[in-house]
Amino acid sequence: MSGHRSLNIPPVYFAVALALMGLLHYGVPLAQLIIGPWRYLGLVAIAPALALALWAALLFRRADTGIVPFSPATTLVLSGPYRFTRNPMYLGMAGTLLGAALLMGSISTFAVIPAFMAVIAERFIGPEEAMLEKTFGSAYLEYKACVRRWL
Q1: What pLDDT, in 10s, does the model give residues 89-141?
Q2: In angstroms, rounded to a whole number, what is the distance separating the alpha carbons of residues 52 and 59?
Q3: How far is residue 132's CA from residue 137's CA, in Å, rounded to a whole number?
Q4: Hey, is 46 helix, strand or coil?
Q5: Residue of 15, 27, 12 whose CA lies nearest to 108
Q6: Radius of gyration of the chain from Cα atoms?
Q7: Is the four-CA dihedral 53, 55, 58, 64 of positive or negative sign?
Q8: For residue 72, with 0-12 CB atoms within 10 Å meaning exposed, 13-18 middle and 19 or more buried, which class applies?
Q9: What is the tens place of the pLDDT at every residue in 108-122?
C-alpha cells in the first residue's frame, strides 16, 4: 500500500477533525458555550463512544472480515451494535468528537462534528454500502432497510 493510500482511512480523518477542533478552540473559540466542571460531561460522551467503536471492531475481527475500508468483506456482521446502527465505528468516532467538543466547551468546535460526519458519509459510507450491496445482495439490502445509517 502506498503512503498516500494509507492516509485515506477514517482514523486519519478523525485525527484531523480532532486537530481542527483544537485549532478552532484555541484560535477562534467564538464563545465559551460550556464552562467549569460541566465540560467534564465530555468524558461521559467519550467513554461509551470509544467502547462502541471498539466493540464493533472486535466483532469484525472475530468474524475475520475486512475492517479497513474497501478491503474484501467476507462476512456481513449483524450482531451487537450493528443491530441498531450500520456504522458503529463511525458513530463512535463522531461521539468521541462530541465528547471532545464538550471538554473544550467553545462553540466553534461543534461545527467540526457535522462536517466530519458528512465527509465520512461521502468518502467512505456511500462507497462501502455500494460494495456491500454488490457482495451480499439482498441480505444487505434487507439489513439496510431495517437498520439506520447512524441511529
Answers
A1: 999 999 999 999 999 999 999 999 999 999 999 999 999 999 999 999 999 99
A2: 11
A3: 7
A4: helix
A5: 27
A6: 17
A7: negative
A8: exposed
A9: 999 999 999 999 999
Instruction: State the DSSP string of 84-143.
Output: T-S-HHHHHHHHHHHHHHHHH-BGGGGGHHHHHHHHHIIIIIHHHHHHHHHHHTHHHHHH
What is the DSSP-derived secondary structure letter of residue 32? B
- Residue given cell 464552562 in the structure block: 35
Provide the grid cell at 83. Answer: 443491530
Residue type, 137: G
Do the Cβ atoms of 113 and 101 come closer than 8 Å?
A: yes
Model-level pTM?
0.93
Length of the chain: 151
**38, three cell numbers:** 460541566
Residue type at 27? G
One-letter amino acid for residue 83 of the chain: R
